[in-house]
């Protein structure tokens, strides 16, 4: 017996047995699980214009910058000179100077000037009472105030006392404008 081409070969030596079941057709493979549809590709809204193109750069081509700082002098490997910037013992440019600032000195000078003018006023009154028999004169009235101004002018020559002297001279100028000038004018001396 010759096997049919549709059916598999029967083993040799065994007779073919009829089957009561009809041959079944192969079942098609099950479709894959339902996948969610892919979202559409993100596109910008139609009302947004594309970015403008980069404008061309005109002029000479960019040249790398030269190294900053002065050239190194001296023999290679030689230690830097004493006091050169960045070496131990060199003064730091950003370090605060010792002593008071000019603003603090001016404030202190204004206070000293006010006190000095109070003392000068007392000396002026003492001079006026001492000169009562001869009559007051301009030099007898102003000598204490001129003395305060001269002391402040001398202090201007020294850097440590310059701020204090400026404050004293500010008070001296104000005293002459506000008090002494009008008083001497009213006295008619």
Automatic annotation (TrEMBL):
<feature type="transmembrane region" description="Helical">
    <location>
        <begin position="106"/>
        <end position="132"/>
    </location>
</feature>
<feature type="compositionally biased region" description="Pro residues">
    <location>
        <begin position="20"/>
        <end position="70"/>
    </location>
</feature>
<feature type="transmembrane region" description="Helical">
    <location>
        <begin position="138"/>
        <end position="158"/>
    </location>
</feature>
<keyword id="KW-0472">Membrane</keyword>
<feature type="transmembrane region" description="Helical">
    <location>
        <begin position="165"/>
        <end position="187"/>
    </location>
</feature>
<keyword id="KW-1133">Transmembrane helix</keyword>
<keyword id="KW-0812">Transmembrane</keyword>
<feature type="compositionally biased region" description="Acidic residues">
    <location>
        <begin position="1"/>
        <end position="15"/>
    </location>
</feature>
<protein>
    <recommendedName>
        <fullName>DUF4190 domain-containing protein</fullName>
    </recommendedName>
</protein>
<feature type="region of interest" description="Disordered">
    <location>
        <begin position="1"/>
        <end position="95"/>
    </location>
</feature>
<feature type="compositionally biased region" description="Low complexity">
    <location>
        <begin position="71"/>
        <end position="95"/>
    </location>
</feature>
